[in-house]
Fold this protein.
Amino acid sequence: FIACVCKHIEPGNLAGIQHIILVLSGKGGVGKSTISTELALALRHAGKKVGILDVDLCGPSIPRMLRAEGKAVHQCDSGWVPVFVDQEQSISLMSVGFLLEKPDEAVVWRGPKKNALIKQFVSDVAWGQLDYLVVDTPPGTSDEHMAAVDALRPYSPLGALVVTTPQAVSVGDVRRELTFCRKTGLRVIGVVENMSGFVCPHCTECTNIFSRGGGEELARHAGVPFLGSVPLDPELTRSLEEGRDFIQEFPQSPAFPVLS
Ligand code: ADP
């Protein structure tokens, strides 16, 4: 089977990818992996072939969100063969989570080793032909981000999607993220404000439990596009825990318009 898959994978690995989207956030827990996952699912619904590269080495959560935990990555002549997460084989995934012996094992490595793995992920995964590669990065702006940007730069069009929450602290962190993009010459596709309001599980009305609009204001100040607000929806949390397709199952949710 592996030999058969490998025959259809061209060497060069990233050469067959049309667009690369780096998903960034100033801090953890703002929904970066959620947005990466839903973006990949939305692109699949639009008929695109998508790869996800999960380089959040210390918190690889995408295999769990896509119900791919415990699956194995194989080696072939052109590198690692990513895991297909759906029957139609339209979403493929490579994550450090597949290389750990246990899903909750921690990656306790120093910077150079992490950077080397990121470079290896970029050069050695045999993606084949993809319309989009979504790259889920660790929070912040660390050496790992530099390693990812440096390794991916030759394969543009490369752009960054910046995720924030409405609260000021997160918005302050994300300002640093935008500075990182400017300094590294990374095009900002836009800012998404996540956890913007709360969707009542009974009537699906959306209430602003925190402040709102910080992401939009930040985008306006920075002169980058604002892509919209995604409220906190308990159905989205549940869908991600159970590896279900939220966009398909909850089109009535106020979170649907931006996610889809
Ligand atoms: P990060 O990648 O930034 O660390 P995650 O994407 O892992 O954050 O999200 C943290 C938690 O919040 C997850 O349990 C996820 O299911 C939940 N979550 C994120 N965004 C939403 C949302 N808009 N509605 C409901 N739950 C969300």
About this structure: Residues 168-184 form the longest helix (17 residues). Residues 25, 28-34, 61, 194-195, 230, 232-233, 236-237, 240, 255 surround adenosine-5'-diphosphate (CB under 6 Å). The first strand starts at residue 17 and ends at 25.
